[in-house]
Each structure stands twice: as structure tokens, then as C-alpha cells.
Amino acid sequence: MDKNFQEEQFTGIIKFTPPLYEQRYQFIKDLVGKYKPKKVADLGCADCTLLWMLKFCSCIEVLAGLDICASVMKEKMHRLSPLPVDYLQPAERSLTVTLHHGSVAHKDPCMLGFDLVTCIELIEHLEESELKKFPEVVFGFMAPSVVVISTPNSEFNPLLPGVTLFRHPDHKFEWNRAQFQSWALETARCYGYSVEFTGVGHPPTGMENVGFCTQIGVFVRKYAQTSESAQSEKPTEAVYKTVFKAVYPSLKDEKYLQNAVVSEVIFRAQIIKRSLLDRLMSEHEEYNDDPAEGKFKFQPSKNCSSEDLGKLIVEKSMGPFVDGNMVYIPLTTIFSFPKVNRLCGTFEKLCKLIAGKVTLSSDGSAVMLNTEHENEEN
Amino acid sequence: QQTLPSQPLGRRQPQHLRVPPSVSEEPGGRGRQRSPQSVPPGQDGRRPEGLQISAGFQELSLADRGGRRRDFHDLGVNTRQAIEHVQESKTGSSGITIKLTANYFRLTSRPQWALYQYHVDYSPEMEARRLRSALLFQHEELIGKTHAFDGSILFLPKKLGNKVSEVFSRTRNGENVKITITLTNELPPTSPTCLQFYNIIFRRLLKILNLQQIGRNYYNPSDPISIPNHRLMVWPGFTSSILQYEESIMLCTDVSHKVLRSETVLDFMYSLYYQVEEQRFRDTCAKELIGLIVLTKYNNRTYRVDDIDWDANPQCTFRKADGSEISYVDYYKRQYNQEITDLNQPVLISQSRRKRGSMMPGPVVLIPELCFLTGLTEKMRNDFNMMKDLAVHTRVPPEQRQREIGRLIDYIRKDDNVQKELRDWGLSFDSNLLSFTGRVVQGEKIFQAGNVFDYNPQFADWSKETRGAPLICAKPLDNWLLIYTRRNYDIANTLVQNLFKVTPSMGIRMNKATMIEVDDRTEAYLRVLQQSVTPETNIVFCVLSSSRKDKYDAIKKYLCTDCPIPSQCVMARTLSKPQTAMAIATKIALQMNCKMGGELWSVEIPLKQVMVVGIDCYHDTLSGKQSIAGFVASLNQTMTRWFSRCAVQGRGQELVDGLKACLQTAQRDWFKWNKYLPSRIIVYRDGVGDGQLNTLVNYEVPQFLDCLKSVGKDYNPRLSVIVVKKRVNTRFFAQSGGALKNPPPGTVVDVEVTRPEWYDFFIVSQAVRSGCVSPTHYNVIYDTSKLKPDHLQRLTYKLCHMYYNWSGVIRVPAPCQYAHKLAFLVGQSIHREPNLLLSDRLYYL
């Protein structure tokens, strides 16, 4: 990832390209690409922009946001809802997005079991008492595999015009690298994490000694936790208030899977039927120029009952054929379409999913469609 | 060739500078992001970012409206005030009364309710909106819990003690800020701002109910109806709008269905590719796709497809806002984790109509693979089976409709958050549908060559009653051609025999047709027409073997322009069913008679010397994006003969120029027929979109007046212009016994649900077999006729009886339907003005 920055030395105005907040989010997205976490929580999620970006990452199945300010979260929370298209074409993965209203100084069991917890530009907003409880809540209680913490690097501040004390009026402190690193190392040591330091927002040439504009610590838990023991020790009551929850439609949900399979089966069957009828029609016209167009019937080659035909399909794995007013399309033919195959996995699953939803031949081996009612009127 | 509008940047490097749809909410940081030293809002010409409604209503914006967005409700077009004779009353009187309910709910407010608008100033100037809010709301004891604030404009449900209040707040940095709150406006409940405000609250509410917004309406995605045969999905949902109606402010809400398609544009292109020949593929794609609305995979926006760029592909690059260049593939991968697999697909172009922030409205590029289709294509609409399958789900009968509408209002009443918000603002909704009294006007008698027919007004159809009766004016089939392919010889022959059976009783004299066999190729048809059509030919009949449009188009084009002779094209399949053969032959005989200038029936028209005009438009999205206006004017007292002409209008041209020419010719022809000029002209104007009323009032009507003035000094006819709207969300239910039914044909409503600033009324003229009947809205925007509202309503209803292609009452006055037919034929098949020699016949039926 290229961290371009533009520096106009003559004016002394530093402008990051892409903007710094984007660089921070991109950093998280890259991290998600690397660790492929299934469950991600963003603490201090504010207007949910990071969560919104993360919902597109296909490895994530659970996304949670936490913020002390409910109204900021509510402002744009509806963009975390599924899109119409998510219903039209349900994804393979399942995804649940939840927003909680609460403080990082409090423990709530809904935050257990996460793989990645991000705290972007969060800690500098915490009062001293909250900051004190923060390591125990995040590292001790939530104890995810990876924690990312970013915070301003105060050494960079002299390069930012107009910054006198802090970058934002709500900041309670801004640390230099030494301060952040000693706090981080101590926290990591205490809770069994290793930590690496990096950052985004390169300093201008010649000023490299001030370090990144935003400093970042990536904490990785040293020992895999036996999740059961971890959770049984932590009987806590729920203290957060859920302000939003969205469950995305997914093929893991039988209802959506069945819908998808039935639609695909009927659609495929219709295509086969049409091409079969077209072929028969053109053959018919070639060999037998019968003017009574709409009247001819497709006769099966053998004069036998449909049960017999059903057997024939299985025994000789016949292709689709026409009998009287009905077109028979063997399920095996339909199962051979990659999309049907991928959706169902096994032939048995296919049969199970379409049972009762698609009209089948009497022995259940073929989809039955009527040749009639093609363009009755115009 | 570039058809894109000339965006300043786009002209230089069109391939690189189009933008993909922008992220709906550009990541704005977490409120901790420093923005470059910016000018305070309001001083740099930037609009405030939008009014925020308190308590979670934030993302909805009031300031968004006005000027930028189209006003779909045509607010502020006050046409009634200029129409003298309806100042006192615009209601009719005839007919018997009927108890009706409508899909409207009254919005009630406390007595003396008003919305108080304040301007808020900061000293020193504070730039961040959030900070401005935070500082202001430190004074909740003063302004109260209920408020709406966009950073500079504050709305309150109560009046503050003083006109100007000054308060002081402290920032976290310890800075003191003086805030001045000045009363600027006291808005009555009926003010446009208040109406917008109600609508915002209501839309927010639908969102809380977990409905998905698509376009202007809200839909419920959790229980879709799937129609796999056609790869369709139907989402049930609601339309809603809150407006000032005749007596009160009301919510109008109706059940709506969104047709979505479970395939991407790319899937669709592929399946089309296998269906059509290579050289026709691009044209077909354009034809099917342009004008359709697509949904994207990554945001909640809909776009209209305006063009397909076959020279571009997803690997093309564009310049981002920050100046860096990126390909579409990379952009979508990075931004939305969307993998584009087909790198050779073309791209779709959508002309953004709305200005977004600082971005210039310009073309937006969409990737077919990432877009889903919504709605129906032209082809699908013509697919009888598909429409039948759809109708099962979308046609909701009155009882069920009322239940579903009621459910929405129930949700509203049960949701605590919503109730609290409404209470705080002093608003509430009625729990019952609006009920009032309408009128059912008397049914019309059908006159046909000395016979008078009554029919059952419930069915609004007299095909049985008049079957086989002599026509008012029957044109002979002395000399006519019947063209068919070899395979259809029998069908053609049978048709002739059947016509011989049905025509005598109607009074149509008929000779045997000149039968001509052709190869089933377009050129073969055209050659036969060139060789065999003579000036003596009454009509040309073609039996077509397939619904291939090109053959039909070629025949119609030749016979409507180069060689003006009426023609009748029928699909062989339509004629092939023995059980319906006679009914079809009857219908064809009637239709051919009209095309040759015959007359079928009439109703009593007491008004004399009146010329009735119908206008409708067809917007051709494909060939050159031209629009066609069909113009039809009555020629005789009984309204059985019609003059027609059409105006073909290129892009950027005003339709009205063409209409002027049409009106002039119509007057000339009227004079030829009647030896005097009409003393009244009544124009029924269809094809007016939401929000276009203003244009009509300010441009089209004056042009009509100009046109009439130019006829002569002493000529001063009375003019009425009536806008006809078929697509309305209004639904009426009639209480009959314990059940709800459709109101009977002839129901007129001119109270309660009409608008006070208009001279408007509704008529239910047609009968439907399933679902809910849709009333037609008539808005008289100009009227010097001095006709009583009752007479105008009656005349309008009478005209709905006069459409000769249907032995029954239709939804709109016949001239509108004729104009529609004409515009459609020209727009779809002929693409230029038909020969005026045909102008006194209904050749376009």
C-alpha cells in the first residue's frame, strides 16, 4: 500500500493523500486481509464508517460496533442494513451487524469471542479513570486474538498548522511515541500479548524523526485461548444497550438457499424446454411442412406410460424429452449445471430442497413442465 | 461518437474522467478529522448540509429540497385562482350519492399549532456542525427537548420567550461562544416547509419499520414473492406522501409492488447474446436496457441506464477526487471488495440528474456485472404469460388492499419511538381511512344507427348488446388485399370466410380479398405492397407468422408514410384458434372499419360547436431520444370522427412548437368539415409527468392561446385545458353491505381528496375484473369555458365511452387513448410524421 503524501514545503501545509482517516481505515482493511478474522468489533465506532467498509470484507461474519454516544451511531446506522441486492442474491457467508451503546470501561458478554478488536483514535478521548479500566476490559475480558490501537503522535503536532494543545477539543491527552509505546508494552506484557508499532501519515522529507502522524500498535495474543475456560470464568451481566441489529440474508439459511435453488432449477428447466421445443419445431418444419402450425403434438418415440418413461430416464440417463403436453427434464441434467451443483452440493440435497416446490414426474426423477401457454395472446 | 453531455472535464479526456458512483457517504472521519481551513457554512455559498430532525432523525434533510430536487407534487402551482367560475365551488351535483372511503389518513395537529423557525449565529464563528449543535443544546432548558437543527436553522414546536435570545456556551477548550437565536418565521401547519417536515418524519418512520427504500417508495424485503419462471422477485411495499388536501393535511398511502430481477445486467446481456444474431446484439441490448432502472451491488442507489459504452470496459481508468487515477476493477475491489470477473464487458452510462454536494452532475459509469435490473422491459410487458403471473401477486382486491394499508398505520400507532416523536411535535394520525360521499353519475346510452342500447353499468361493457348491430357508418371492403405466407394459407382463407359471416349484419359491404402469398421476409412483404397497392385499395390485411417487430414496423412505415393506405396486421396464431375465431373476426371487422374512416357508435353530447382535443406523449428512448406527441381532435358534433397529427420532437426541442402546428391544422380541418370554427376547445392533456405542471401552465397554455389568437381578430373561442393523470396513488373503496368493493363506473369525486389550489376531480370510469380500480385524476389548469363543473365532469365521462377499439368504458377520454395509440405507433414503428392524407381516419388503432 502506498502512503503518498504531498507536502508543500513553502506553505508549510501538510496534506495527506489519501486523507489520513482513509489511510487508517485502509490499514485495518489490510490487516483484515492478513488475519481473515470472522468476528470483528470496532470500539468507538462513531458514525460507523469503518464498520460500513468492513461489511464488504467477505471473511467477516460478525461485526459489532460500540460507542458511548448513541446519537452519533444512529445518524448513519442504516447504511449497515442489507441492500436490496443482498436479498436478490444472498451471499454464501452469513453476516450479522450489531451496534451497542456503552462504554469501553464496562464489560459486557456480547463482546466475547472476537478475533479482531479495533480502537481507532479512541483512547485519547478517554478520561483517566476510563483509560485505567480499558486494558482490563479489552485485553483481559474481551481477549481477542488481535487488537489494534491507534492514537495521535504528539511529536507530529508542530507540523500541523493551528494545533496549539491537542488536535481535537475532546482529546484528554496526546502521547508521544515513547509514552504510547511504554503504555502498550506494559499492557501487552500484563495480558499476554505481543505488540508491534507502526503508523500512518508519513512525516515530510527531512522531518522523519518525528514519526508517523498517527501511531498504531498491533497487539497479537501470544497463546491460543481455550475458549470454554475463558468464558466460563466471566459471568457478566449485559450492560450495553443494543441500538441496531441487522442479519444479512445468507445461503446458510435454509429459507434463502431453498429459494435460490428452486429459482435456478425452474429457470434452467425453462431454458432447456424452450431450446428443446425450438429444435423439435424446426425439425418438424423441415421435414413436414404442415400449415396447421399450433396444432401438432409431440409424440414420444415409444408408446408407453409415463412411469415407464421415468424408469427409462434413470436407467439410460436419457436427456430431456417431450410426452404429450409435458416436457420432462431429468434432475440429473439440471444438477449438472455448475450453479445448481454449487448451491446444492449433493444430488440428494437438490431433491430435498425442491421437494414440494417444483412439479416433478411421478417417480421424482425429472422436472415436469407444460408445453402449452407459450404466448397465448398478443 | 460521444453522446455524453459536455462536462467541462469530460470533453478533454472522456475516457478517463467519468466517475463511478461515489460512495454514498464519503468517509467523514470520526469527527476528529481536521478539515482544511474552511469558510463557515453559509458564508461560502455552500448550502447548509441539511436540517437535522432531533432524536435520530438526523440523516434526513430538509434543506435538500427546493430547487434541487424535482417537486413531485407540483406544490405551488395555483391554477384555480385564475379560473373565475370555480372560485366559490368546484363541485358537481348530478348523480346518486355513494359512501366511499379512500386510502387517506388525516394528520392532525394541536389547535394553533405552528412551527417556529429560528436562525442561529455563533460568535466567534464555529465551523463544525456537530460542535454548533453541541454548543446550542447546552441550553436545552431554553429550547426544549424537541428540536430540529441543521447547523444554522432551528425549528421548534414552541415559541421562545423573546424574539432574539442570546446565550453563552463554553467549548471544551474553554473558549466562550455567544449564540444568538433569532425568530425568523412562524410557519402555519400548511406551509410547504411543514409539509416537507411531515414527509421527512414519515419516511424516517418507514425506515424504522425496516422497509427498504427503492426510488421514492419503501419495500419489505423479508417476504419477497419469487417468480422463478421469469427470474422475477416482487417486493411488497408502500407509497406515501403527506400533502394539503381540500379540507385537511393528509397522508396518502398505497400498496406498491417493486419488481426486481434476480440477475445482473451482465447475465441479461449474455442471455440476450445467445438469443439474437451477432450484428443485432448491440442494438437489441440498447433497446432492452436503455431507460431501465438498475440497482447496484454496493450501495443503495438506483440509476437509470441512459447509454451503453461499448468502447469502454472495466479496465478503463478514471480520476478520483484526490487526483489519482484508478481502474474500475481496482476501485470496486478496493472500495467494496467487489470482484469484476468479466473484463471485456461494456459499461453503462447514467446521467446523474441530481447535484450532489460540490460534485458536478455528470455521467456516472456503472459496471453491468455489479448492477441488478429492476422493473420490466418492453419485451416483458408484452409477454402475456409473464404479466399474468405477475398480476396474480400485484393485483390486490379492495378488501385486502385496505387491510394492508391499515397494517401500516397500525405499525405507526404501535411504535413508541414514533409516537413519542409525533407527540413532541404535537402531531398525530387518524386511525381510520378517510370516508366521505361521492357521486355516481348516470350511465350513458349507446346510439348505433338508429338503435339505442342499454348495458349493465357495473361491467361498463356493451360488446354483447351491440354484437352484429348495424354501424353508424360502415365503409365497404370493395378492394382489399390479404397478404399471407404459404403456411398461413388456410388461416387466411378461414378469416375471409368468417368475415363474410360477420360483416353483413354490421352493414359492411364486402368483396373477396385479393389474396397474395409472400415469402416470410420483410423485403417480400414490401415488394408485394409496392406492386399491388393502388389508390383504389381500401385496406391492406397482413397475416404475420411471428411477432418479429421488424416486419410489422416495415409494413406500417411504408403504409403510413410513403403509400398512405390503412392496414391491418394480425398474428397467425391469433386467428388459429377455432373457439375464438368468430369473436376475433368481429373485432377485426370493426377495427378495419374504423381504420377506413367508418363510425361505430355514439353517446349523447349536448354541447355544441365544441372541438375536443387529446394529447399524449411517447418518449422514444432508443432512436435519437426523441419524443412524440400524438394530437387528436374531434371533427364532428357526435365525436365519431377524429383528426390526428403528431409532433416529433428532437432532444432539447420544446414539444409545444409542434403542438401549435397540430392545433392550427386541426382548426383548418374542423372548418372544412363544419364550415365554421369551433366556439369551444377542450384539451385533454395526458402524458404529463410529476412535477411538470408548472411548465404546462407557463408555456404550453399561452402557446395554445397565441395559436387561437392568430386565427383572426374576431375569433375568440373558449379554451379549457385539462391534465389527465392515470397513475395516481389514490384508491377509492365503496362500502357495500359489510364488504369493500370497487366503486362503480361513473363514480365522481371532487371533495376531500382534491387539492384546494386546483380545479380538479377524480372519475372512476372503467370496470376491472380483478384488483382495485384506479381512478383517473383530472386537473383543469385553464378554463374560460364557464362550463359548470358538473357539465365538464359529465362530458369527460361521456368521452370515456368513445374509444372504438373497446366496446366499453375506458380509463381516459377517448381522444387521450387515440393520441396514445398514435404516439405509440409513430414512436415504436414509424419514427417520423405519418402522411397527412390519413389524418381523418383512425388508421393507428
Give the rounded overall mean pLDDT of chain A.
Answer: 82
Whole-number mean pLDDT of chain B: 84
Could you state the order of secondary-structure elements of chain A as H and E?
A: EEHEHEHHEEHEHEEHEHHEEHHHE
What integer value in Å does the Rg of chain B equal? 30 Å
Strand numbers in spatial order across the main sheet of chain A: 8-9-7-6-3-4-5-10
Arrangement of strands in the largest sheet of chain B? 32-31-30-33-34-39-38-37-23-2-35-36
**Name of the CATH homologous superfamily of the largest domain in chain B:** paz domain
Radius of gyration of chain A: 31 Å
Helix content of chain B: 25-40%
Low-confidence stretches of chain A: 1-11, 287-316, 373-378
Query: How many domains of chain A, as an integer?
Result: 2
Largest sheet of chain B: 12 strands, mixed
The major β-sheet of chain A equals: 8 strands, mixed
Residue share in β-strands of chain A: 15-25%
CATH level 3 topology of the largest domain in chain A: Rossmann fold
- Using DSSP, what is the number of strands of chain A? 13
Q: Total strand count of chain B, please?
A: 39
Cofactor (chain A): Mg(2+)
InterPro entries (chain A): Hen1, SAM-dependent_MTases_sf
Protein name (chain A): Small RNA 2'-O-methyltransferase
Catalytic activity (chain A): small RNA 3'-end nucleotide + S-adenosyl-L-methionine = small RNA 3'-end 2'-O-methylnucleotide + S-adenosyl-L-homocysteine + H(+)
